[in-house]
Amino acid sequence: MATLLQITQEFCKRRGLPTPTAVAASQDDTTLQIWGLLNEGSQEIADRYEWQFLTTRYTFIHAASTAYTALDLSDSGPVPDYKAMLNRTLWDTNGRREVNGPLSSKEWEVLLNLAVSQAVYNYRIFGNALRIYPVPTVPADVTFAMEYISKYGVYSPTAAANQESFVLDTDICRLPTNVILADIKWRWAYNKGLPYAEDFRACEALLVNLQGRDPAPDIVMDSSGYEQVAAPGLLVAAGSWNLP
């Protein structure tokens, strides 16, 4: 992964442009335009797919606020870069149990209106919030964990946090360098009124190819899940018994 300055310098070398020594503090119009196009491209690409390099694990303590709100998922909440949760990754880490869900609107209303007593937690996401039912008896002692896809393609070492855009020269692109360079290549040509169709096609092919590299789990049609990996009981390794 490369910094804003490194990506800008590499692009300028490839286009035969003067190589800047700084970006954020530059007064050069060309450098500033490249900076803007990098921000535009990184934001758009980050929103395209469920990139594995933008996957983040997050833990939180149930807030026990009104309407069963366990986590604020709005831009002003504690995870402003939240885009989508990965299915079956929400766990009650104290009880070591997966949280059931996401529930449908009907299922959620059944729980609330009938005040169903639950031995395990259930969740639903709506209104920019993750809602967990029932409310933990001791909220301060119940920690939940999940994996989510971030919508921020930039990491700031200075702030030690992900962010939406490049701000400083030292900010790091969380996307592969070859992808962001291919993206800015066609954007630059487009904004300069130059032919860009072939560069755009090559960039799109690169994105599709990159997305296809992410390993996917096997499709299982029965009811088994993580129980195959960590279920209670005896585990006998294949080939460890004698055959007549």
Q: Give the oligomer, counting copies of the same chain as homo and different chains as hetero.
A: single chain
What is the first-to-last residue Cα distance? 56 Å
- As for the number of domains, it is 2
| Radius of gyration based on Cα positions | 23 Å
Shape: elongated
| Content-based structural category | alpha+beta
Fraction in beta strands: 15-25%
Portion of residues within helices? 25-40%
Largest sheet: 5 strands, antiparallel
Report the uncertain regions: none
Number of helices: 6
Mean pLDDT: 87
Q: Give, in order, the helices and strands.
A: HHEEEEEHEEEEEEHHH
Q: Give the beta-strand count.
A: 11
Blueprint (SSEs and pairs):
Elements (H helix, E strand, L loop, with lengths): L3 H12 L13 H18 L8 E7 L7 E4 L9 E4 L5 E2 L4 E2 L6 H10 L7 E5 L2 E5 L9 E8 L3 E3 L4 E3 L8 E2 L3 H15 L5 H17 L13 H4 L14
Antiparallel strand pairs: 1-8, 2-7, 3-8, 4-5, 4-8, 6-7, 9-10, 9-11
Helix pairs in contact: 2-4, 4-5
Care to describe what's here?
- A hairpin with a 4-residue loop joins strand 4 and strand 5 (97-98).
- Helix content is 31%, strand content 18%.
- It has helices at 4-15, 29-46, 105-114, 177-191, 197-213, 227-230; strands at 55-61, 69-72, 82-85, 91-92, 97-98, 122-126, 129-133, 143-150, 154-156, 161-163, 172-173.
- Helix 2 (29-46) crosses helix 4 and helix 4 (177-191) packs antiparallel against helix 5 (197-213).
- It folds into two domains: 4-47 and 152-212, no CATH class; 52-150, no CATH class.
- With 244 residues, it is of the alpha+beta class.
- The chain is built from six helices and eleven strands.
- The radius of gyration is 23 Å and the shape is elongated.
- Strands 1, 3, 4, 5 and 8 form a five-stranded antiparallel β-sheet that branches. It has a three-stranded antiparallel β-sheet with strand order 2-7-6, with helices on one face. Strands 10-9-11 form a three-stranded antiparallel β-sheet, with no helix packed on it.
